Amino acid sequence: MEVIVTAVGPDSQGLADPIVHYVTGAGANIHEIQMYDRGAERLFAMLVRVEWPVEQESVATLRERLTEIGRVKGLTVRVWSRDEHARPPRLAICTTFRPEPPLAILRGIRDGRLKAEAAVMIGNRQACRGLAEQFDVPWHNVADEKGSPDNDRMVQLFDEYEVDYIVLARYMRVLPPRTCWEFAGGRIINLHHGLLPPFPGFRPYEDAFEHKMLTYGATAHFIVPELDAGNQIIHQSTITVRPGTSLEEIKRLGEGDNEPTCLAEAVRRVVDREVTLRFHRVVPVD
User: Fold this and answer.
1) How far apart are CA 265 and CA 231, in angstroms?
2) 136 is catalytic
3) Helix or strand or coil: residue 82?
4) For residues 22 and 56, is the Cβ–Cβ distance under 8 A?
5) Integer CA distances (angstroms), 11 to 139, 151, 279, in order
6) Whole-prediction pTM value?
7) How far is the C-alpha of 123 from the C-alpha of 141, rounded, in Å?
8) Considering only 8-22, 102-116, 118-132, 207-221, which range has the smallest mean pLDDT?
9) How far apart are CA 224 and CA 229, in angstroms?
10) Cα→Cα distances 76→54, 88, 189, 191, Å
């Protein structure tokens, strides 16, 4: 069974060895290992993807053992496997203002196009609360009156609701590197409202319009600690407009249909196991 282990905590010496030694000593094959050390923040992070011998030791037992190692070393350790539970994957849908992307996910689940469960909706604004109530999904606002989120509270909710995948459905805040590493390995899906790589950042429609583009798009990608970086694209979709089309009309077309469709298709590809993330690259599942 494939298992992803992440460990995050204050930087120090000898943090990786106990985890690696335990999984290899139990007979696991390591398929991927990454370590991250940001000196300025003194943050250590590690991801280990293994083939775990569940016939010898359960994933739950592995979690207990590594959690204890983390306690001794001052690390937060997470052990996750898509196959640990015989149920559809559970999604955390994170929102800010726009309701169309989360609505596309919720409708896809309701209509059977997305074989997943909406475990929780989390917002840094109240705009999508009514949508959560309409679909009977637990709702949590984790931000102050200015929309600044409590990132620690978000992580607590991800754990509380036993989330498999985090979907940033036009969630207009950047997750801190620590959160990205805690749920690394292809567990965070982001909708960017522009084509990557040429139009990153927070104003991709405006930037493309200033370049007199006639094709606009949306990009759904796995999150890694660097913002909109690398080769983690799951799906892109585009719209083409006639010369002279106003920016307002372009944004109406993009936000109303193209972006939600792009996100829903990306989530489907992930939950249907068509693609996954390996060494920060999107690859087809064997």
Assistant:
1) 18
2) no
3) coil
4) no
5) 35, 20, 22
6) 0.95
7) 5
8) 8-22
9) 8
10) 23, 26, 22, 27
* Active-site entry in 136, 207, 228, 286: 228
What's the pLDDT at 229?
A: 53
For 266, the token pair is 């990306």
What is the DSSP secondary structure assignment for residue 67, as one 8-state letter? Answer: H
115, 271 Cβ separation under 8 angstroms = yes
| Mutual angle of helices 59-73 and 16-25, in 10-degree steps | 160
- Cβ proximity of 168 and 149 under 8 Å: no
pLDDT tens for each residue of 10-59 = 988 889 999 999 999 999 999 999 988 766 668 899 999 999 999 999 99
CA separation (Å) from 123 to 147, 149, 180, 278? 9, 8, 17, 29
